[in-house]
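Before a colleague's protein record goes any further, I have to sign it off. My question to you is simply how this chain folds and whether the tokens agree. I do not need a full report, just your reasoning and any doubts. This is what I was given:
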Amino acid sequence: MWVDPDDDPRETDVAAIDERGVLLDYLRHYRLTMEMKCAGLDAEQLAQRSVPPSTMSLLGLVRHLTEGERHLRRVMAGEDAPHLYRTDEDRDGDWNGAIADPAVVEDAWRQWRTEVERTDQFVAGVADLGTWNAGVSDLGPDGADLQLRDILVAHIVEYARHCGHADLLRERIDGRVGQ
């Protein structure tokens, strides 16, 4: 165990009673889990790749999830939120640019926290989870329309999947597992 269950920041005494509360609680849980998986590691450890030929690393996951936060707002709000790390020349820039440099690590966490806050502000400002996307969706066939609830579920799934990857990456770095 990394954290005593009584001190686990993911656990609260507040029970979600509606759809919005459940979705946002799951999202908060997985975001905190990702932070916990990366806690206490230096730049070299965070940038350590999984196994060749994969370029996946914990730092790459943070950068990738940052792009996901921007994607949600780009699709749902129609915001001008271009990619931070990906380019036409390097579509895997979120992974490839995840190098063992403390400045890159600091920037990745700063960007992630900023994007999480912006996403949360957007979601808080939308009263109806049935609200349709204002931007062009690249999810689904032919850029299908999406409701906010759909993209929130997709966002939760993305975090959950990558928390599983983070668990394996962390175990490879220092043997820590679980939580």
In short: The chain has a mean pLDDT of 90. The helical segments are 19-38, 43-46, 58-76, 93-96, 102-124, 148-174.
